[in-house]
Amino acid sequence: MKPFQIIWPVFFLYTAVHCAAALNPVDSLSRLLKSAAHDTVTLRLLVELSEVCEEKDIETYSRRAIQLANTLVSKTSVKTEQDGIQQKKALALNNLGYYYQQLLDIDQALKCYQQALDILEKLKNGPRMVSTLYNIGFIRVQQGQTGEALLSYERCLKIQEEENDRKGIAVSLSHIGNIYRGQGLIKKALENYSKSLKIREEINDPDGIASALNNIAGIYQQLGKLEDALDLFTRSLKIQKERNNKKGMALTLNNLGNILLQQGNYAEALSFYENALRIYEESGNPGGMALLSGNIGNLYLRKKEPEKAGEYLTRSLHLNEQLNDKRGISYALLKIGEAGFMNKNYTAAGAYALRARQTALETGNVENLRDIEWLRFHIDSAAGNFKQALENYVHYIQYRDSIANKENERLAEQTQLTYEYEKKEAVLKEQQEREKAVSEEKQRNQSIITYAAGTGILLALVFAGFVLRSLKITRRQKSMIEEKNIETLKQKIIIQEKNKDITDSISYAARIQRSLQPAEKYIEKQIQRLRAHAE
Q: Which of 67, 267, 333, 440 is 20 to 30 A removed from 456 (C-alpha atoms)?
């Protein structure tokens, strides 16, 4: 993939291009280019085409864009317009650098990348600078110029921290970790890998997590912690399979194969290598094919099968030469020399070893130089060239001692690192035990609470049943009392009615009697009057 994807500022143009691009972006952009009415629109289209076109056409569109940008800049004095044009020019230069990089014209690629970087620095466009710096860093690593590569990645990291680009920070930390690992600075490498993993977990980046696990596993492999390394590689492979990340799967399969080879398990190692190689072949990845071909060739050397080893190593050499990967070239030449020595073809073996030495001197790979001088010593000894053999042996001792000094420093660092790792593991284990005890206590408490709650609920149900029963009885008794009261009231009313009738009868008789009383008094009065009259 090319590094940049242009974001179009003109809404109509963006919509037209990207809707049509879903079918055929190059044809759609080409039609728009033919009908473009303004040079600024033409410039945007040319840069966009340099992004999506076939690799063979990148140079055409990029150069047209650069030439047009130069013309437009000279025609305007408005600062904002000049800056916009210059940014498009930087993007075109970056794409042109990518084109030369694919052609293995590294000098031209670096020249284009540097020109793009200079423009972006003046524009203070940090995010765009990152992609160009990554490209430069990648080339420097291939050339064995790790110091320059480290500077590029550290500049990327600084920009990403200022922009708070957390995913970008994680990527740069991984690149920096790779540089330190190549320099034998294991502790620094692990620190950067661990920081990268933490960020990737926080932002939930599965592919990044898998990559970080691979890097840390590689450190454990160097420390001799093969079981820990296998565990991390296996975890990484599981994530990559779930994500169908073919490239990641191939790399992890290769790493697993390396550990199995280190353990002497050739059959399983070969199976992992072949699966990884198949993925790289299907995706057309020459770098991956070169790596796996070299590893399989080395495996056959371990099995004492020089003819089979030579086939894979020769393929690895040709691929590395196409990529201009000098470290890969030196390694492949060394191993082909070993295969020739195994076949007692000392002349051919010596020629390959000499070529390997010349390439290794260009990259400064001391470990490779040590192995090459050891091979040349054996070749010249077997061929009877004892004077040259002695000279080779002296060189071998020099490289060996140089590495030994660094190795002692590295071992001291690894010892400290191992101590810190084991200490952390002990603390982690203790913490896990505490958490387990707390968890078990919580479970016991929860069981008690559950039992108590169940018992409470059961008692509540029993009590509720008792209350309901009591209420039912009370309602029945109340109903009976109410019925009895109603009956009593009825009897009372009947009695009251009867008493009223009797009372009314007595009252009536009394009234009759009272009505008769005046007549009797009248008669008695008349009798008394008559008596008085008679006398």
A: 440
DSSP annotation string for 310-370: HHHHHHHHHHHHHHT-HHHHHHHHHHHHHHHHHTT-HHHHHHHHHHHHHHHHHHT-HHHHH
DSSP 38: S
Tokens 């920070």 belong to which residue?
169
Higher-confidence residue of 39 and 6: namely 39
Answering whether pTM is above 0.70, one says no
Residue with tokens 């290794």: 360
Cα distances (Å, whole numbers) of residue 55 to 95, 113, 185, 205, 510: 10, 17, 38, 30, 140
Taking the C-alpha atoms of residue 418 and residue 410, their distance in angstroms, rounded to an integer, is: 12
Q: 33 and 42 in contact (C-beta within 8 Å)?
A: yes
Spell out the residues 6+ positions from residue 176 whose beta carbon is closer than 8 angstroms to its own.
150, 153, 154, 157, 192
Distance CA 92, CA 51 (A): 9
Average pLDDT over residues 429-458: 68
Instruction: Evaluate whether 369 touches 399 at the Cβ level (below 8 Å).
Output: yes
pLDDT-derived band at 494 (thresholds 50, 70, 90) equals low
Q: Residue with structure tokens 């242009």?
A: 6
Give the mean model confidence (pLDDT) for residues 152-168: 93
The answer to whether the CB of 61 falls within 8 A of the CB of 46 is yes
Kindly report, residue by residue over 191-221, the tens digit of the pLDDT.
999 999 999 999 999 999 999 999 999 889 8
Q: How many CB atoms lie within 10 A of CB 179?
A: 23
Taking the C-alpha atoms of residue 210 and residue 6, their distance in angstroms, rounded to an integer, is: 29
Has residue 513 got a pLDDT over 70?
no
Which residue shows structure tokens 């696990």? Answer: 213
Please choose, from the candidates 357, 372, 360, 366, the residue with its C-alpha nearest in 3D space to the C-alpha of residue 406.
366
What confidence tens digit (pLDDT) does each residue in 54-103 have? 888 999 999 999 999 999 989 888 999 999 999 999 999 999 999 998 88
What is the pLDDT, as a whole number, of residue 463? Answer: 63
Give the burial class of 63: count Cβ atoms within 10 A of its Cβ; 0-12 exposed, 13-18 middle, 19 or more buried.
middle
- In this prediction, residue 447 carries a pLDDT of 66
Residue 107: which residues within 8 A CB-CB, separation 6 or more? none
C-alpha to C-alpha distances, 228 to 231, 462, 516, nearest whole angstrom? 5, 59, 136
3-state secondary structure labels for all residues of 274-301: HHHHHHHHHHCCHHHHHHHHHHHHHHHH
DSSP conformational letter for 8: P
